[in-house]
Amino acid sequence: RGEFEHRTSIFEGAFRAWSHLGGLLPLDLETKPANDLDPLNFPLTDDIRLANSKKKVKKSGSDEGGAGPDVEDGEDNIDGVGGGGGVTAAQAQAQGGDDKRREYPYEPLPRSGLAHPFVQAILSPWLGPDADQDAIQLGLTTLRTWWQHRRKGESGSAIVALGTDRMRGVVEGYTRHFFNLAHCLVVNDKEQPPRTLHGKMRELEKSRNKKGKKRSRENVSIKVRRRCAQHQYQQLQIQQLQQQITMQQIMISQQQQQQQQQPR
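Below the sequence we write its predicted structure tokens.
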């Protein structure tokens, strides 16, 4: 039971941290420190990902004849709990769980797997420093399986196991730890961000590129207008100089004619 609580608290903290990071705005990451984006002190409100996921769940339930996906058979075996008696989320709530548990939208694990430092950081405190390659690969498979099932919400056995004051504090500690780590990896080290955040970052980059191209075209247009104005000014100056030269030539010619007409 202790190993289950230990592993699940790590996974849950990492899941919440990665979910919170995925819901942030790219501009906030650029302008605010990690402390001002802390998932515990600054939870996301009106998260559009929750509304979208509920629409998908509703559609999925109607397609399957009304069978809701919130409770999975064999869920406790996935969590690694032997003889848990198939505790559902609803039963866990009845045993003293919080009826208003905060929801964390699903963000997939990085596709690069163990090559991503965030995934390594999740497995490290669970497996320990002496884990061999086989144990690490098995741990990665376990993490991926748990992460996929967590998409449908916390399991009943996890709610019960992590529902004590002590374990809630442990999960919050892991949540803050993993968020600070993920924030640093994405902002400073330019590692792969959560999928939703990655999409928003690409949209912002496209928008900036469009504005940059528009600004560049405007700058070119301004330069062209300036050159045209300079050219017109130079042409006007040349015309004025030509007129002055012509007038001087006429005056000189007149003076010569007057000198020739004077009696000697």
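The chain has ten helices and no strands.
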